[in-house]
Amino acid sequence: MTRVQLSRLPGERVLITGGGVEDQLDLAALPAYVRAREDDPAVAPRWVWDDTARWYPPLLAAGVRVARCHDLRLCRRVLRRAPAVDGRLLDGDESAHWDRLGPAAAPAHPTLFAADETSEHLRADLEDARQLAAVAASTEATRLGLLLAAESAGALAAAEMTYAGVPWRTELHERLLTDLLGPRPLRDALPPVLDELVAEVRRTFGAPGLNPESRTDLLDALGRAGVDVPDIRASTLRQVDHPAIEPLLRYKKLAHLFQTNGWTWLDEWVSGDRFRPSYQPAGSSTGRWSSNGGGALSFPVQVRSAAVADEGWVLVVADVAQLEPRVLAGMSRDSALARAAQGADLYQGMVADGAVATRQDAKLGLLGAMYGATSGESGRMVAGLTRRYPAAFALVDEAARAGERGQVVRTLLGRGSPSLGGSWDEEPDGPPSDLQALDRRRRAYGRFTRNFVVQGTGAEWALCWIADLRNRLWRLGGTGAIDRRPHLVLFLHDEVVVHAPAALADDVAAELEQAAAGAGRLVFRDFAVDFPLSISVVSSYGDAGKDKRKAGT
DNA sequence: GTGGTTTGCGCC
DNA sequence: AAAGGGCGCAAACCAC
Q: CA-to-C1' distance for A43 and C6, Å?
């Protein structure tokens, strides 16, 4: 595979390097250049650039789609933390700038201040050579190479999803809001239903000026009513018997909708009947994505019914049942757990295996093992399951112990956990309470590393899944721009949504399955683990997974 | 006033 | 029902 590095030069120029050849062109001429090379698979290269979020959106806007890339910023971060990489191989010209590089700002929110001039014009070819050398010299070259390719493909998918957007019916969303909250209020005012609820809460508490958002106000009012609670969480309040609680909880729920996914959210994030969130690949240290605008990874079930496919199109929604337990089975090569994972419901498989009495016990025990539960029913369940699935439970326990010793752990493909900085092994010289604090910190980091290995490898499986999927969808589509073919519009850790012409729904479903199976083989090689999908073909996202929910837990 | 932290709730 | 990991976001809160 040819690699072509793109670097920005001063004066809106682009430096093109690769295969010992150098060339320059105007930035404005880049889309045509890239399109020409992409059109011929024989010469389509892997494009190497500092940041996909900086290079790809203008290409997409010009109607140019790219098959492969190498995102130097993301990959450098992976290599910097990877235990199997000799960090000295990453040092060299401009390397301090590369280390400091942050993500490019989303196009919708350009930075107010110009980025520093040098970091805009870094030499991609020099950095690419360092990264290739670092991978080649590693004992984990194959796995790291896969991780870097997946990470980069994910960055392409993220840019494409932001470009295409989730089809969104503004009028449906507005109707939903008006039904629950009343008409849209004037600036700074509360919608009528919330207004009325505030009045009711104040009346019932006999507290005229009470602010239901204020912890202090609520604790005072509850105190006067003879109720003593440690906090004002909904789950705590639900156990309190007082006539103000019911309207208060109703207020909290509706106020949250109003504040986070109300009219203001619509104004800011939905335009032209598309919701365009901004993703940040590997925004979490485990490699999971985060979202720094629009809240794509956390928009509530409540408003999903406003995501509706275009006329003649459908949404194909697929999610992996119990991704992380399956990943744990694969990475630990625990054949008993892998056997339980055959079929649609891993927890039920554990029951059939005779390991536990009920599905709920299986779930509690496995989640407890992955999250580090020590007490309660979950903790007790963990002990029993350790005997049935020794390899799986040993893997997470070893990760936890490594964390407690202050050591770095790694995912299956080699992503390293962040280290704790220098103060870890300092001798505590304070009173005994400091020792206790240190111990708590140690345990907390152990729970983090315990979860890191599973969550991080799960993220790697998911990256491989969407990386393969986006190319499969592209091949399905015939001709035309990316949003005129079947294309990804949403990715939520273990779930994807594809927007596709209705006639292609079955083909999309088949590609989803094949990509999932392929991801399992890529990550776990010869150790077979099932990754069954539940797939819904729907017009409205709100209708997805209904059967599953009905049957679930 | 501003900026950073805490709290509570949404998602996986 | 809560417990354990990772996030984002909005408002309250607190220090400056």
A: 40
**Closest residue (CA to C1') to nucleotide B6 in the complex:** A215
Distance B2 C1' – A214 CA (angstroms): 21
Confidence of residue A420 (pLDDT cuts 50, 70, 90): confident
Residues A511, A534: Cα–Cα separation, whole Å: 13
Q: Could you tell me the CATH number of the domain that includes residue A21? A: 3.30.420.10
In this complex, the residue with its CA at the shortest distance from the C1' of nucleotide C11 is A213
Asked if A58 and A36 count as a contact pair (C-beta separation under 8 A), the reply is no
CA angle A484, A489, A492 (to 5 degrees): 165
According to the model, what pLDDT value does residue A425 have?
53
For residues A13 and A145, membership in a common domain is answered with yes
Task: Yes or no: say if A288 and A493 are a contact pair by the CB < 8 Å rule.
Answer: yes
H or E element: which one contains A466? helix A432-476
Q: Residue A48: helix, strand or coil by DSSP?
A: strand
- Separation in Å: C12 C1' and A219 CA: 14
> Quick check: A222 pLDDT over 80?
yes
Q: Which of residues 230-249 of A touch strand C (CB under 7 A)?
A: 235-236
Helix axis angle for A432-476 and A505-524, nearest 10°, is 130
Strand B nucleotides where any atom sits below 7 Å of a protein CB: 7-12
Give, in Å, how far the C1' of B11 lies from the CA of A176: 20
CB–CB of A119/A103 below 8 Å?
no
**Which of A412, A471, A498, A493 lies closest to A69, judged by CA?**
A471
Angstrom distance, A240 CA to B10 C1': 23
- Which domain covers residue A31, as residue numbers? 1-164
- Identity at A347, one-letter amino acid code: Y
> How many folded domains does chain A comprise?
3
**A151 and A177 co-located in one domain:** no
Using the C1' atom of nucleotide B9, identify the protein residue whose alpha carbon is closest: A256
Q: How many Å apart are CA A538 and CA A346, to the nearest integer?
A: 26
Task: Tell me: pLDDT of A167 over 50.
Answer: yes
Distance B8 C1' – A298 CA (angstroms):
15
Domain boundary among A397, A418, A452: A452
Give the CATH number, domain containing residue A234: 1.20.1060
Q: Which nucleotides of C are covered by protein (CB under 7 A)?
A: 1-13
Region A295-312: mean pLDDT is 91
In this complex, the answer to whether residue A553 has its CB under 7 A from any atom of chain C, a nucleic strand, is: no
Closest-CA residue to A392 (of A349, A338, A346) = A338
What pLDDT does A301 receive? 87
Q: Which nucleotide has the shortest C1'-to-CA distance from A371?
A: C4
